[in-house]
From TrEMBL:
<comment type="function">
    <text>Thiol-specific peroxidase that catalyzes the reduction of hydrogen peroxide and organic hydroperoxides to water and alcohols, respectively. Plays a role in cell protection against oxidative stress by detoxifying peroxides and as sensor of hydrogen peroxide-mediated signaling events.</text>
</comment>
<dbReference type="InterPro" id="IPR000866">
    <property type="entry name" value="AhpC/TSA"/>
</dbReference>
<dbReference type="GO" id="GO:0140824">
    <property type="term" value="F:thioredoxin-dependent peroxiredoxin activity"/>
</dbReference>
<feature type="compositionally biased region" description="Polar residues">
    <location>
        <begin position="119"/>
        <end position="132"/>
    </location>
</feature>
<protein>
    <recommendedName>
        <fullName>thioredoxin-dependent peroxiredoxin</fullName>
        <ecNumber>1.11.1.24</ecNumber>
    </recommendedName>
</protein>
<keyword id="KW-0049">Antioxidant</keyword>
<dbReference type="InterPro" id="IPR036249">
    <property type="entry name" value="Thioredoxin-like_sf"/>
</dbReference>
<dbReference type="InterPro" id="IPR050924">
    <property type="entry name" value="Peroxiredoxin_BCP/PrxQ"/>
</dbReference>
<dbReference type="InterPro" id="IPR013766">
    <property type="entry name" value="Thioredoxin_domain"/>
</dbReference>
<keyword id="KW-1015">Disulfide bond</keyword>
<dbReference type="Pfam" id="PF00578">
    <property type="entry name" value="AhpC-TSA"/>
</dbReference>
<feature type="domain" description="Thioredoxin">
    <location>
        <begin position="7"/>
        <end position="137"/>
    </location>
</feature>
<feature type="region of interest" description="Disordered">
    <location>
        <begin position="119"/>
        <end position="163"/>
    </location>
</feature>
<keyword id="KW-0676">Redox-active center</keyword>
<feature type="compositionally biased region" description="Polar residues">
    <location>
        <begin position="143"/>
        <end position="155"/>
    </location>
</feature>
<comment type="similarity">
    <text>Belongs to the peroxiredoxin family. BCP/PrxQ subfamily.</text>
</comment>
<keyword id="KW-0575">Peroxidase</keyword>
Length: 163
């Protein structure tokens, strides 16, 4: 997948229907009118992914805004349940078993790690990430290109796009 194929700022966010650890299906339309942060991560219970999940869990700013956090990876429901229980994660972890949704947003595909080609969560040498901050002037966000070893796609919106 090329950078041009990846989800870009201003693109409508693709519709999804993904199950959580309890088997409940979550769809973008379920969160209409709410702030939503959907983040993609490679694997449950790994150091970087655990740190990221716990940062979302512990974010007072996101709680104050009533933001709904959704994590998504290709891990199965049982793995998500163990991970969520172990770290008291209060938000759903969604399963994208075949990686189709993640591929559709440009986060899953072929990657090369030390000469070994595999399928998984991927990031280009420079990823597009959204930086958000809260100030007295209100909620501000901007998109920046930054070198990063892993990709986190975050979207905060009041009016999710529906297909």
């Amino acid at each position: 997948m090329t950078q041009a194929d990846r989800l870009q700022p201003g693109d409508p966010f693709p519709a999804f229907a993904l199950p959580d650890a309890a088997g409940q299906t979550h769809q973008l339309g379920d969160y209409a009118g709410r702030y939503v942060v959907l983040y993609a991560y490679p694997k449950d219970d790994t150091p970087g992914c655990t740190r990221e999940a716990c940062d979302f869990r512990d974010s007072a700013a996101l709680r104050e805004l009533g933001v709904q956090i959704l994590g998504v990876s290709a891990d199965d429901a049982a793995s998500h349940q163990r991970f969520a229980e172990k770290f008291s994660l209060p938000f759903p972890l969604l399963t994208d078993a075949g990686g189709d949704f993640l591929a559709g947003i440009g986060a899953f595909g072929e990657k090369n790690s030390y000469g070994k080609v595999t399928q998984g969560l991927s990031a280009p040498p420079s990823s597009l990430t959204r930086k958000a901050s809260w100030s007295k002037a209100g909620w501000r966000s901007r998109w920046t290109a930054t070198p990063t070893p892993s990709l986190t796609l975050s979207a905060a919106t009041r009016r999710p796009t529906h297909e």
